[in-house]
Specification:
Radius of gyration: 28 Å
Strand order of the largest sheet: 1-2-3-4-5
Helix content: 25-40%
Distance between the termini: 37 Å
Order of helices and strands: HHHHEHEHHHEEEEHEHEHEEHHH
Number of strands: 10
Oligomer: single chain
Length: about 475
């Protein structure tokens, strides 16, 4: 307006003729500046469909081959590279995730994978729900995924835990996350795709719940207060929890009480990812958000059960189980089969001189009933013994079932058909059993424990499940 007034006030008869060319020069410049083809300014990033609400997450279908559907993202624009450095750290992370989704989608379409290096292992076969999606997703995870482990808190409740025994896999997982050599360890929280809370539920039980003087001392209140206080500390100190509502944060626990961490404050933990061995859907486990972790008993000096499995044709026992009457499912199993059949060998206590692992290695099928809780190390013990697991559990989300098709290497028997175990297993043709058994051998690598962790082992499989859930969430684009 000032320019126009100034020009009109001039005693210059040709000003109106100069005004038209000036406008013609200015308008194209304005158009080019705001054009999406210009990468030199910060336009909203519409092609990744970021939510405008920083706490709003956008889930999409859960199955591995649907998880990366076209509704989740659009292909990355070639113009990102010219102005990506000007984006916030969260925007850069979301662009990175969009590129990973695009690569996985391309692998599904082309039925092939793309990698910058030679792949030592290529997952193939019907044990995977979609082996093209899984392989490319694992490649993208190895290339991109960064995790920040919070440093707040003191041992023994945080950053520490026994790495042997019943909850040893929980300690191994936490120790791997905090290892300086961990491939996924972020150097700074701004570069992290996900955030790990390294508190140890088993140690909270061991140290905080002492002494136990009455039944009221078993209340989960102290555990829940500890977890909530830890989250509030990191939420007050950093921006990351608040910007996502916890949707890119996760914990890991194989203690029976692990699922109870969040029950006192469901709203606080609504978007939180829990990596749990006790993956009971009737007790609040959410397959679309939580991760089912394999339960593994780690003996001293070993990273897994021994491998004493015989060739399928040399296995003389149809089915085997040995264990205490822990819970109603085992009580039913023992009631119907305890020491009653030479083919279906079920024992509460092993006969003297018998070796538990050797008996599994001589069995075609290994019975894996629930105990007091749904999780049990028997499934992994069966896999190590190359024995086909027979799942006798209600409401159990099997480990890594977003990737693995358990129907191809295990048998499910409903609890109300425990009395029919022998008839059901004998009805399976020997040729089909051999196929099941060979697939058990094939998936064993995904349940092995290595330190440091290796691609496709049990720790990487758990992290891949976290990676999938992070891919399944888009966070807001607002700067922090």
């Amino acid at each position: 307006m000032f320019i126009f007034k100034k020009m009109s006030s001039m005693n210059f008869p040709y000003s109106r003729f100069l005004l038209i060319p000036a406008i013609c020069l200015i308008l194209p410049s304005v158009f080019l500046y705001y054009s999406p083809f210009n990468g030199n300014h910060d336009n909203p990033i519409s092609d990744l469909s970021f939510s405008s609400d920083s706490h709003k997450i956008r889930p999409s279908p859960f199955a591995a081959n649907e998880l990366l559907s076209t509704s989740m993202y659009k292909s990355s624009s070639r113009h990102y590279t010219s102005h990506i450095k000007k984006r916030s750290s969260l925007e850069r992370i979301e662009v990175d995730l969009a590129q990973a989704r695009a690569a996985i989608r391309k692998a599904i379409r082309s039925r092939n994978y793309a990698s910058d290096k030679e792949e030592a292992f290529i997952p193939r076969g019907n044990v995977y729900r979609n082996h093209y999606a899984f392989h490319q997703s694992h490649i993208e995870m190895m290339k991109r995924f960064k995790i920040w482990t919070y440093r707040e808190g003191d041992q023994p409740l945080v950053h520490y835990g026994p790495m042997r025994g019943l909850y040893g896999i929980e300690g191994q997982f936490i120790d791997e996350m905090e290892d300086n050599q961990n491939l996924f360890r972020a150097r700074h929280p701004d570069e992290a795709h996900a955030f790990f809370l390294p508190f140890r539920v088993a140690n909270v039980i061991n140290y905080v719940y002492k002494p136990i003087l009455s039944m009221s001392d078993y209340s989960r209140e102290r555990l829940q207060r500890f977890a909530s206080d830890y989250i509030r500390i990191i939420a007050d100190r950093y921006k990351y929890w608040n910007r996502s509502g916890g949707a890119d944060h996760f914990m890991a626990s194989c203690h029976d009480w692990g699922p109870d961490v969040s029950s006192a404050d469901p709203e606080l933990f609504r978007n939180f990812i829990r990596v749990l061995c006790n993956a009971n859907t009737s007790e609040g486990f959410r397959p679309e958000r939580d991760v089912s972790m394999a339960d593994i008993y780690l003996s001293y000096g070993k990273l897994g059960p021994p491998r004493l499995g015989l060739d399928p044709r040399n296995r003389t026992i149809l089915a085997f189980f040995a264990g205490g009457a822990h819970g109603h499912i085992r009580e039913l199993l023992l009631e119907h089969w305890k020491d009653k059949d030479v083919d279906v060998q079920v024992h509460e206590y092993l006969p003297k001189g018998q070796n538990y692992t050797q008996l599994m290695g001589r069995s075609r099928y290994c019975l894996c009933p629930s105990g007091f809780e749904v999780a049990s190390s028997r499934i992994v013990e069966a896999i190590y013994a190359e024995c086909v697991p027979v799942i006798i559990k209600d409401n159990y989300c099997l480990p890594f079932s977003d990737v693995l098709d358990w129907s191809k290497f295990s048998v499910r028997i409903p609890v109300d058909r425990i009395k029919d175990i022998k008839a059901i297993l004998e009805a399976i043709p020997f040729e089909k059993y051999v196929k099941l058994q060979k697939r058990v051998v094939k998936v064993r690598r995904h349940f092995e424990v290595h330190r440091p962790a290796k691609p496709f082992d049990v720790i990487h499989m758990a992290l891949h499940s976290v990676w999938l859930r992070r891919l399944n969430v888009k966070l807001g684009q607002r700067d922090y």
